[in-house]
Amino acid sequence: MTIDECVADYIRRFRERARAEIADFAKQKQESLSEVITLAAACQCKDGKRHSHQRRIPSAVLSEAARELHAHQEALSTAQNFNQLHSRIDAVIGPIHGVGELTVYDIAHRIGGFIGLEPEEVYLHAGARVGAAALGVYGKVIEKDQLPDAFAPLTAAEIEDCLCIYKGLFSEESASPSDCDKRAPVSGCFPKVSKRVRSC
Fold it and tell me: Across the chain, which distance is largest between two alpha carbons, in Å?
């Protein structure tokens, strides 16, 4: 399966749902930043279930993360861009045992959705890092233009998602288009697309 085919498949099957997940935070305008921090740190989907990315993190760890974020709420509210927001959140909750880089990114992305700050660069962690490495790209944060042109239709956040979802296909030249339906993971808040598959 080619990169172009994976990107097209992502747009067709996952883009709308991934955008809806963050849009839920953007729509919380009637809520305060404090309330949004609580929601973002709880790592819960609309149905109340824990997001698959954070399903193994003890509730006590997420509660500690929420407390620390609340204590630094003013610093978060004055972030000028997503990179600054991410850095501040990482400094606050990154040192907490049990909070990894994917959780830092996910919480920053959720809070950023409320504040109006979207990633302008592609953050590589967990599955996204594996997907990028399969394409010969390495680092913690990269520019969109470091990746093949096939990713141009996607935002930086969507590229991160796509790299994670199709990480196993990018290095397999013999993969066929139908492999996406059988093996591509999906967003943790949308575990069912056509078949039951593991989230990234």
Answer: 51
Question: What is the tens place of the pLDDT at every residue in 151-190?
Answer: 999 999 999 999 999 999 987 643 443 344 444 443 444 3
Query: Which residues, listed in sequence order, are joined to residue 142 by a DSSP beta bridge?
Result: 122
Name beta bridge partners: 122. Answer: 142
| pTM, 2 dp | 0.82
Q: Do residue 40 and residue 82 come from a single domain?
A: yes
Radius of gyration of the chain (CA): 17
Q: Does residue 164 share a domain with residue 96?
A: no
Give a yes or no: residue 189 inside a domain: no
How far, in Å, CA of 146 to CA of 141, rounded?
A: 10
Rounded to whole angstroms, the Cα distance separating 181 from 9 reads 9
Tokens 């913690």 belong to residue: 140
Distance in angstroms (rounded) separating the CA atoms of residues 196 and 200:
13
